[in-house]
Specification:
705 residues; single chain; Vacuolar protein sorting-associated protein 51 homolog; Vps51; Cullin_repeat-like_dom_sf; lipid transport; transport
Length: 705
Amino acid sequence: MSSFSSVLDVTKPDFDVEAYVVKLLREKSLDGLVKEEEEMVSAVRRLDSDVHQIVYENYNKFLTATNTVRKIQDEFTQLDSEMKSLSQSMTTISTLIGNLDGVLGEKRDDILQLGSSYKVVNSLKHIFDLPHVLQSEFDERNYGEVLRMFKLAEESLEQYKDVPTVQTVLQKSKKIYDMTENQLMDQLRNPASGAELVSEAVDLLLTIGRDEDEVQQVLLRCSEQSLREDLKELSTNHSDVLDLVDKASESFIPNLTLIATTHDRLFEEKRDELLAVLQTEMNSLHALVSKVFLSSMDAKDCSIVVRALDRYFRKISTCRHVIPGLDFLPLTIELINEVSKHEIDLSLLRIKEELKNSLNEVRKALINEEKDLSGLASKIEQVFVHQVKTALANLLLFTASDVTFANLPPDEFRQSFALNAHERLLVQAFHRFAELADEYESGAGETRFIDPRVLLVFSVALQHLSNKSAVYLLNLCREQFSLTPEEGLTDISVVTLEVKLRAQKLVRCYAEKTGLSMGETLVKGCTMLVQPAATPSAIRASVRRLVEEMNICDSELALLLGGDSKPKEARVSRRPITTALDAARDSLWCERIDFHLQIHFNRASIITVIVKVVLKIFIESIRLQTYSKFGVEQVQVDCYYLQRCLAALVSDEVVVNSMVDQALSSALKRCQDPVLVHPSRLAQLCEAPPASANRPSSQASSLGY
């Protein structure tokens, strides 16, 4: 079987073409035969190409080898010629030496003496050239070579110093030697000298026997002066805190570590003196860095501050390991805590400033007749939420995973920082918001003459904040900084209650100021009218204007707080007062009006307080007047109109009815002969359009009626 396989293998020497072809015809189809042919042709071509490549490569190698052999042959031919020439030259030299030996043999001793004299002269030449050589080395700042050469020649020169020429050489060399020593001391004292030059100077000075204590003290003073120069440059040449830390990392701290390394290598036993100097200079650096960190006044630079703080912390940590005994890590951790508090205070200040700016924009918008009060309230709330979230995001940079000091033990930084973020930033932000509300509520300073609607918008923003956003922000802070209530956090309900109380104060202030403004306008319009000379024929203009303003206010409240602003049908269910006796009797049963009920954030509750204030002012102004018969009738008409229009706006009609009755009763008491208008006449007057002829007369009494 194996012999048959070898017959069919094209690579074997006993390959049988006929058998191979028969096998292919028997086993393969026409397509298979064509494919086999293509593969065989391709294989033959590849083989042919490989053979050509091998032949070409071997031919190149053969040519290279031939050239090499030819070159070697030429070189051997040349070498043979040179060797023959050398042999002839050696023969000639040998002959000459033999001849010279015969000629100079008698003068051998003189020649030896001449050689010895030549050596002495050559040595003297080097000695006389020593000052020139030393000066040349000194000029090239090769101070070590100057000292070495002088020390080598000094002993020999001292032996022959009695010779004037040698003494001159010694003096000149000694002068250059002293100059070199002084130059090394100057180099050591110069703060501008690099660490390598200082180290070289110390080594050379100690080598030549200079007093070790003196050299060490000079080195310390020089190091101290160099560090102070670096500090001076840092204090005057930095753009921000990050630039300061970078420059300190590139100059002061490397210089500090190099000084410590050099001193420890040369004066290891005097390390305490070195540490005292380094401690003083590091205190100065830390004071400078702390001052710049704490002088930052823009909360937007928080990322830069954190990066700078992290780099400074890493450099100080490295110094602690490189310079044992110089540990500024506790002070650096203290600085980190101080800077974090400073950034919290800056964020808090920025929140308050943005809130003030937002409220100023609201005031300007209301001056420009802005109608979207709901949008203005949302804007105030959104500004607060956005600023708080931005501040929290900035503070999270202090605890980022790539910040080195974030990995300190929790009791050294993270725990107190997280608590400050909640209490010192977030809780205080709500407190500052509440203080701002108190400023607007008190009306002090620039808030004294603001539009009362600003108070309304502000109060609605606070109410919305207490209902939802306050809880969201407090929970967000606790989640981001991994805080739990057990850590002594201010309860959420305390914060929301404070905000709600300020919202209540503001909305009450709005209602009272609005009511006071409307009431003063009403009273002014009523008291300036003349005393009627006849039965009233229309509602007074100031009363109609009051009702119009009240309807406008009602519409604004409906748009802001929701609810139906369309007045409901007024129900005049009570029997109209027809006589003074009826008025006196009804006044005994008037409902007690409470002016300090809690105001709810809805249209009816707020408008009710405004109506109470207006009617109370109206009542008090009536009690200050004295009325004629027609004056009482006018008051009755006005009261009826007010009762009819205002009762539809308030949440409880009884309030309006009771206060209108008090107003009419007060007018009746201030009239000697009161007569009231018939109810049917009252209805006609209230339904009649405003009379243009109802103008003040020049015969008005000073009392108004």
